[in-house]
Amino acid sequence: MPNLLFAAVHYLLLAGGGEEPLARFYADVTPRVSDPESAYPLFREFCLRHSDAIRGLVNNRLVQTNEVSRCSALLPAFAIALRRQGKRSIGLVEIGASAGLNLLWDRYHYDYGAGLTFGPSDSSVRLHCRLKGRNIPRLPDTMPAVSARVGIDLNPIDVFDDDSILWLKALIWPEHESRRRTFAAAVALARRRRLDVVRGDACDGLAGILRTIPGDAFPCVFHTMVMNQLSPDSQQRLDDVLTSEAKHRDLAVASIVWTPKEQTPRVLLTQFHNGGPDRAVLARCSPHGEWLEWLSSA
Ligand SMILES: C[S@@+](CC[C@H](N)C(=O)[O-])C[C@H]1O[C@@H](n2cnc3c(N)ncnc32)[C@H](O)[C@@H]1O
Predict the structure, then answer these.
(1) Which of 16, 64, 204, 265 could form a disulfide with 98 if both were Cys (CB 3.0 to 4.6 A apart)?
(2) Count of the separate structural domains present in the chain
(3) Are 229 and 96 spatial neighbours (Cβ–Cβ below 8 Å)?
(4) Which domain holds residue 166?
């Protein structure tokens, strides 16, 4: 993945390469950024000189960008599922959770413009999402009580591990200052507690996690920008697990999925009610959640 190479170079610059000639093209390493048009020769020279370190990173790290602004696209999807479930508490289960920052979506403040806001007004994590098109999504009536929150990831990122957090920072493009600020605020908030992100392949671990969700809670499963990292077989296996679990209890799956056929990611909601799946495409959104175009009448 090209992302891996760019992140590896960015990581080396963030981790002490501030004096490198290439650093002057990176807005989060230097105060005055040079014209990117002239970056390539220095980029190439840097890659050749640090090829061992870059090979090590590219071979051992994953694209795990943890982007909390994607919660702005998920929130109206959760709202639909919650309206159906009434006032039950919810059990959050995130597939491909990375550091698990999106498991804290109920702690963030949301602003969609034109006075449409939601979430704790004093939250240190403030998400802004521009609405496109004519439809206004309906937000939850109240913040649901969360009685469980568990994630699963091939490689869970420990928010207390500075080197892992540096890797996630390196995955944010250097000129994306606002994403970087939001990420830092979300990490600081997550560090107030220990998040439960289990190591494993979701295809193998999801059923076990779902069974840990208390019986009186409504399981809200979600995943964002994960399916593109799974083979079609693995995607089918996950769907089979969810369908099988839904034979025993109602559950909902909200997701942001970007397939190669689509120009933009889509927000999907599958509600399993009395076993049967009810699948809907709710919206389109930007890859990092900066805008949302609501398509659904729900
Ligand atoms: C692009 S990141 C997205 C992280 C997070 N969902 C977000 O949107 O901020 C994809 C994550 O999915 C994880 N992942 C990929 N395949 C997985 C699998 N089979 N089981 C569990 N996690 C997986 C990766 O390790 C990575 O952390």
Answers:
(1) 64
(2) 2
(3) yes
(4) 68-294
